[in-house]
Amino acid sequence: MIQFIFVLSTLISITEPSNVFGLVNSSVKLDIQHPVTKKDDLFWVFNETKNVLKYNKKYNDITPSTFYEGRVEFNKETYSLTLKNLQKTDSGLYKAKASGDVDRVVAEYRLSVLDPVEAPDLTHQLSRDTCNITLTCRGHDLSINSSCYKETCEKKEVTSPENITLSLSVSGSTIICNHSNPASWKTDVLEMRELKRHCADEGSVSPSAGEPVCLLKTALYSISLILMLCNLL
After folding, report:
1. Is there a contact between 143 and 137 (Cβ–Cβ < 8 Å)?
2. Using alpha carbons only, how large is the chain's radius of gyration in Å?
C-alpha cells in the first residue's frame, strides 16, 4: 500500500462540499473549484483518511493509491479527477488539496453513487362517465392517482425520503409518468388521443341511434291513421 505524507500547515477549506451523483458502474468527473499555482503538488483524498491520487508537479508524476489503481484518471492541465466503474462504496467526501507555500483545499465534493431507477407503470381506468378517467402512476414503492376530464389532467408529484421522485404531468398531447432519482430517470407515456376516443360529446345523438326512434314514430302514426279510417267506414 502506497503511503502519502501530507504537510498541511495552513488549510483553507471550502464551506460546503458540492453534491454530485453517479450511477453504479458509470464514471464521474470532479473538477478543481479554486486556482492552483504552477508550483503546487496536488492530492485527492477520500473521507479525509484514504488517499486516492498524488500529483507531483516538479517531477510531473502521477501516483494513484493501490485501491484506486486502474479506476482513476487525472488531467495534468485541469487537475480534474475522473472516477470510473463507480460502486456504492465510493460514496463519500472527496477533497483536492494543493500543497505549496500555503496548503489549502481547492475542491470538495460529496459523492452519492446510486442504482438506476426502474421503469414506471402508467395505467388508466374509465369511470361510468367516460369523460372522467383515473390515471395511476407507479414506480418503486410510490404511487400517484390523478384524474382527467377530456383534455384536462391533474398534475401530481411525490418524493420519498430516499430522494426518489414520482411525477405525473402533461406535455402537449402526452401524459407522462416520470420516475427519477438524482442520477437517472425513466418514463411511461400515454397519448391523449387514446383517452379522447372514449369520451363522446355530451348531449349529442348519433344517426345510428336516432333512426330506429324515427322509424318507430312513423309506424305508430301509420297504425293510428289506419284505425281511425276503419272506425269511419
Report:
1. yes
2. 34
Closest CA to 9 of 105, 104, 108: 104
The answer to whether the beta carbons of residues 217 and 223 sit under 8 Å apart is: no
Q: Are 76 and 60 in contact (CB under 8 A)?
A: yes
Task: Give the integer Cα–Cα distance in Å for 88 and 228.
Answer: 94
CATH fold for domain 18-114: Immunoglobulin-like (2.60.40)
Q: Where are the domains of the chain?
A: 18-114, 121-196
**pLDDT tens-digit readout, 141-183:** 899 999 887 677 889 999 999 899 999 998 888 999 999 999 9
pLDDT tens-digit profile of 57-78? 888 999 999 999 899 999 999 9
